[in-house]
């Protein structure tokens, strides 16, 4: 069986790329298609694949500016010619699911989220953008919504990374989805029993919808130590109004991240995520989470056992939660036990079983 794997872009290792790694392990001989590829920022598991890119790869400074080409991405993804393959396996949060499917092919899509830039998080992404970007986004939004919904018909079987996303797939695409939670590397992220220090931790891309501004405002007022790991376009802006109790650590290698997870008092998770791997990485290290009570966090955090929630999404609510945190006692073992339910080994087996079921059903139906 000839397999094509399709992923939106490869410019760093985040939750979607961790899912992609498992696809590459299941089908090491597959051809991997992606719009943009930066080898230096991608894991060896993915780099060993045969990788084909779009014409975007030749554009100057594309690794920093690829998001600005969103309006032409549907056309670019449709230009990939996959007619020689039997199975298409897409890992999609933007346009990957929109590849053209030919007769007698099976398309299984692992959907991290319907294209949130044009659906439920449009305002979050563009409210702080430059005027020209806002105007462009409003002009292209109706077209992208129509294309996103229409292209969902190319998919024979949807997998959602959470119940939260399964509901969105039903709402926006009118399709059912099998829920298989994204994987967490619980073999690497372990409880090391290090001495806990008195700082809180954020691990995040520095982009608007992650709500780091809300967390910084809260900790400016709390005057408690907060360390922020991550990089992104909001970095300069966030640093300008952060007080001295807040430290920006930039990008950190996995080994250092493991250490910070094990030393921090708690992870702060102020955003709404489709699923969210970071809270599970923290829990795998025995660390509780203070999270906004919405989205994927509701499926990965056990309230008052592995973390606490705050609601609504305001500075005041987060401050109250941080102040209440010391009133609870959290067991590192319980945190880790919860994370183990989302292990990589579990994900590998569930994905493999579901793909086999889809292929068997398709064979019986005469695809």
Description:
The chain folds into two domains: 3-183 and 344-365, Glycogen Phosphorylase B (Rossmann fold); 200-340, 3-Layer(aba) Sandwich (Rossmann fold). It has helices at 15-26, 44-47, 62-65, 73-78, 122-126, 131-151, 163-173, 212-222, 235-241, 254-263, 278-284, 297-300, 315-324, 332-340, 344-365, and strands spanning 3-7, 31-34, 50-53, 87-92, 106-111, 157-160, 177-179, 200-203, 226-229, 246-250, 266-269, 289-292, 307-310. The relative contact order is 0.11. The longest helix is centred in the last third of the chain and has 22 residues, at 344-365. α8 packs across α13 and α11 crosses α14. The chain is globular, with a radius of gyration of 21 Å. The strands form two sheets. It has a seven-stranded parallel beta sheet with strand order 3-2-1-4-5-6-7, sandwiched between helices. A six-stranded parallel beta sheet has the order 10-9-8-11-12-13, sandwiched between helices. By secondary structure, the protein is an alpha/beta fold. It has 15 helices and 13 strands.
